[in-house]
Design a protein that fits this description.
- The chain has 360 residues and is α/β, with parallel strands linked by helices.
- It folds into two domains: 5-59, DNA polymerase, domain 1 (Orthogonal Bundle); 66-351, Aldolase class I (TIM Barrel), CATH 3.20.20.
- It has helices at 13-18, 26-36, 50-59, 132-161, 188-199, 219-228, 242-248, 257-270, 289-298, 324-336; strands at residues 66-72, 78-83, 89-96, 102-105, 109-111, 126-129, 175-178, 211-215, 232-236, 275-281, 304-310, 340-343.
- The strands form two sheets. The protein has a ten-stranded mixed sheet with strand order 1-2-3-4-7-8-9-10-11-12, with helices on one face. The chain has a two-stranded antiparallel ribbon with strand order 5-6.
- β3 and β4 (102-105) form a beta hairpin.
- The longest helix is centred in the middle third of the chain and has 30 residues, at 132-161.
């Protein structure tokens, strides 16, 4: 099987094509065709010579993902089940917002080895890392669908009213979050290389403010990553004591809360981004008034944003989400303490697309 050209790191593509006898500038043309135009064959790269297209097709394939299933939730959230070249499967979620944001939550691994007790993906165990091309393939395939839906909506509105306002169209994907299946910072190189493509103006051209990487708290990798790429960082915290976090997240035995907070304070001093803390609230386990007070103390000295996430149930897990009054109490208290706080409305629960519910 020929290697996929989408697995080549963007900074090494020029060297790869010149090694085949192509001109160096062909790399930029290929990048645009692959990621902006989203072509599926080298023959479609019409500003390359016929010889160049033949040479590329003889040496590389254009790896693509097969969408096996698309589910639509009652709130408009869509979940995509992708089949990889070896038959393994991953899921991605497309989340629309009233403010016209369209966020794509993508996976970085088949399964996950972190073993978090509140996460359905953890029940799968770990199967393998995704390649750079497979991470990007989720964005490519969903972008195609969004583009087709925009075209259909535009044509329908043009026929019915003859007046077309861009604000009425389905938005393009505006945000990328690496919060799907897997721990992104374990699959470090592929994730870094994929994000470089997302940010490149010849490719997806996403703003650094629109890309977020979530980690379970791998401090050493997070430190290295944050110095290499200036995108947003989210920490999955979910507890205010090591005793509770050890039970919820085995990774805490390697990277306890104090170490995570030390890193976040240092990060706050050198980054323009706030640290986002994801806090999955579980009734009777981490949602007490004492937890609320401890969280405020933990965040002292950190430019932080807190996402309060009611636990999303799934078969095989006995946890329950917090009471509505508890959520509102936490929101009010944290906000009054000057901490930017959001209650993350669970999207796509009816198709198991909410936070912690993905599995293939």
């Amino acid at each position: 099987m020929k290697p996929s050209i989408t697995d080549i790191p963007i900074e090494r593509l020029a060297a790869s094509v010149t090694a085949l006898g192509l001109k160096k500038y062909a790399a930029s043309q290929i990048i645009t065709w692959l990621y902006k135009e989203r072509v599926t064959s080298f023959e479609a790269m019409t500003n390359l010579s016929r010889d160049a297209r033949r040479i590329l097709s003889e040496n590389y394939s254009i790896g693509g993902l097969l969408i096996e299933k698309v589910q639509r939730a009652s709130d408009g959230t869509k979940k995509f089940l992708f089949v990889l070249c070896d038959g393994k499967k991953v899921e991605s979620v497309l989340i629309p917002s009233p403010d016209k944001r369209l966020t794509l939550c993508i996976s970085t691994q088949v399964g996950c080895a972190m073993g978090c007790a509140f996460c359905r993906t953890a029940k799968m165990g770990f199967e393998r890392d995704l390649t750079q091309g497979e991470i990007l393939g989720q964005v490519i395939e969903v972008q195609k669908i969004v583009k087709d839906e925009r075209r259909e909506t535009r044509d329908a509105k043009a026929v019915s009213s003859r007046i077309l306002r861009s604000s009425s169209l389905i938005p393009c994907i505006t945000n990328i979050v690496l919060m799907g299946m897997g721990e992104p910072l374990v699959n470090y190189d592929a994730v870094v290389n994929a994000i470089k493509v997302m940010l490149d103006e010849r490719a997806f051209n996403f703003s650094k403010r629109r890309v977020t990487v979530s980690t379970s708290g791998l401090v050493s990798q997070a430190d290295k990553f944050s110095r290499q790429l200036d995108v947003k960082l989210a920490i999955s915290l979910n507890a205010t004591t090591d005793d509770v976090r050890n039970k919820l997240m085995p990774v805490n035995r390697r990277f306890p809360i104090a170490l995570i907070m030390k890193f976040c304070r240092e990060y706050s001093k050198r980054s323009r981004h706030r640290v986002t803390f994801e806090y999955v609230m579980i009734k009777g386990l981490n949602d007490s008034t004492e937890d609320m007070n401890r969280l405020v103390k933990l965040l002292t000295g950190i430019r932080a944003k807190v996402n309060l996430i009611p636990f999303n149930p799934f078969t095989g897990c006995d946890f329950k989400g917090p009471q509505e009054i508890t959520l509102k109490k936490w929101y009010k208290y944290l906000t009054e303490k000057g901490i930017q706080t959001n209650i993350r409305v669970s999207r796509g629960q009816d198709i198991l697309a909410a936070c912690g519910q993905l599995a293939s």
